[in-house]
User: Fold this.
Amino acid sequence: MTSGTTGENAWVLDAILEIPHVRAAVLLTRDGLVSGYTQALSQASAERTAAIMSTVQGACRTAAAAFADQEDARIRQVVIESDHGYILVAPTAHGTCVAAYGDPDVRLDLLAHRVHSQVARLGEKTMAAAPRGADGATHA
Assistant:
């Protein structure tokens, strides 16, 4: 497996790669644009994965709301299990999302814990870097 990451906020993916059997990860915006990806993926694969994961999240939000007979639902995570392994997707509160792929031997509990930890770290960094006005007040 090639290690390392590419992209402005790709640092969030580095700790995810430390988990045994994790093969790739992507940081994406809610609308499916790549913010960072692991070097195990080509840029084209990262872009395709990001677009697909954005669509998957939208479908899961719609399904969760429909099953609950509600207008909308907030997704905390999506797990996809296949014969190739697991994909875990976790959105942040700031419009980004982390998607990680591990082969069939990955420990899903460790993957989920690490992905959610990194999502929290990304949120903390985003909040710390919130824009300030001329008076020094933080804008929401």
Notes: The CA atoms of residues 25 and 100 lie 4 Å apart. The two ends are 40 Å apart (CA to CA).
